[in-house]
Amino acid sequence: MKAAKFDYEVPASLDEALASLAENGGKIVSGGQSMGPMLNMRLATPDLLIDLRRLPELTGYSQDGGKLVIGAAVTHAQIEDGALPDATRGMMASVASNIAYRPVRTRGTIGGSLCHADPAADWPSALTALGATLVIAGKGATRRIGIDDFMLGAFATALNEGEVLIAVEVPVLSDAARWGYYKFCRKTGEFAEAICGVVFDPAGNIRRVVLGALGGAPKRLSALENRLGDGPPGDDEIAAAIDALGIAFEPAQRVMHNTAVKRAMQQAFGS
Fold first, then answer.
1. What is the pLDDT of residue 27?
2. What's the pTM value of the predicted model, to 2 decimals?
3. Domains along the chain with CATH numbers
4. Are 129 and 225 in contact (CB under 8 A)?
């Protein structure tokens, strides 16, 4: 099957893109690694696509004090290849290197992944573990929102009509920071069936343990966050923290999520 007919615009600036979005509606596209298949299967039939992947406002980065500001159109491959400063002590590069396949990583973007909001994707979980802040632009206004409040559910975000995600602000981790990230996939390149991200940076007051691939937004395991720094939790502690989410897992799912937490913790703190 092929896509239904649609108009296609490549604006020269963010202001031009926002003006077109406000006037004409349509759908935003960046790397197109999610939108392309949806168009071909006619799960999405927009009248207009507005392509943001070449906008200079979205393709760069900057380091501002204690945060790295990453343009929403920066690709997974750029992060994997170290084209940006290593603000997360290797965590983001490691996550990026295990997203899908290299051809996908060369076109897929960090902002596109967040806005698509697939529960099994890597960036929603990894950036929640890092405590990122998202910068969102609308016509005439810009706002910032914590990532905990951005993903509302499967394929649903806090973006309002006419708004565009323009940047991701990631805290710069100290030399004392520890992190772990583990996911289960049926085979390399597929979406995850269980994800856990752990970030502990006492210098930056970051204590986060995040469970992902839950069919909705990632969830923080607060009981485990409160004891970070005391060494890896035991199996019973992990099971109790996951049970506290109130999610009815199938037995195999429970084993995968429990194991993902255990292995992420081991990566962060050792066995």
1. 85
2. 0.95
3. 7-51 (3.30.43.10), 58-171 (3.30.465.10), 178-269 (3.30.390.50)
4. no
